[in-house]
Amino acid sequence: MTDYAWAAGTLWWREVVRFLRQRHRIVGALATPLVFWLIIGGGLGSSFRSNTLGGEGYLEYSFPGALVLILLFTAIFSTISIIEDRQLGFLQAVLAAPVPRSAITLGKVLGGTTLALLQALIFLLLAPLTGIPLSLEKVAALSALMFLVGFGLTSLGLLIAWSMDSTQGFHAIMNLLLIPMWLLSGSFFPASGAPAWIRWIIRANPLTYGVAAIRRLLYLEVAHSPADLPSLSVSIGITLAFGAAMFAAVSWMAARPASR
């Protein structure tokens, strides 16, 4: 095993072990989106009528967004640990190791992505309760896609947290950027019913395409597709590009001398 793979694998495993030892993070990352989904879906279910897939209920419509919210929350909780690592001196010790900085960021990102995927898969088991059937083919495809979405979100979270010295500052940026990014991704409401200026923001939001791809894969057996969603190939391509761009950005930031 090369030094690069060893460093990335060690940091990946450390993230997984630390998460499993902090059970409040498991509850927070999984239960919070579940509560959001049930409360919002229950409150709007009687008044919401979607034209995207034949008029499904709001709990069913918002299910893909709830999956993405779990990925987002786990990315937030996992990347905020970089601030704690800096305060404890662990990050400085890792950065002094004779391995490429990208191996360090890859290990952190893969750790957060793995945790996000595992929790999203648990939530995915609720899909049949909303009327969305599951199959092994569908679960496999969704697992690969949610890994890509989680990788991009974790890389973005690490990019934000890398240069910060306080968790308070990270939470401020999270509330300003990441939560609106989720709200304006087609998770909460369809773009077709929004004002023109909001539709432009939704189209420019890279998370929109991750939500759209998840929505399409959840309905693999449906012959027709909603006209207002981007195609599956476009959605996957933009999701891949977003993840690659965010990882390249955080690796570049980690390689800067100022990050020592």
Major beta sheet summary:
none
Mean pLDDT reading: 82
Q: First CA to last CA: what distance?
A: 26 Å
From N to C, what is the helix and strand string?
HHHHHHHHHHHH
Structural class: mainly alpha
**Count of DSSP H/I helices:** 12
Would you count the extended β strands for me? 0
Low-confidence stretches: none
Radius of gyration: 19 Å
- Count of spatially separate domains: 1
Portion in strands: under 5%
- Classify the helix fraction into a percent range: over 70%
Shape label: globular
Write up what this structure looks like.
By secondary structure, the protein is an all-alpha fold. The chain has one domain. Helices cover 75% and strands 0% of the residues. It contains twelve helices and no strands. The chain is globular. The two termini are 26 Å apart. The mean pLDDT is 82.
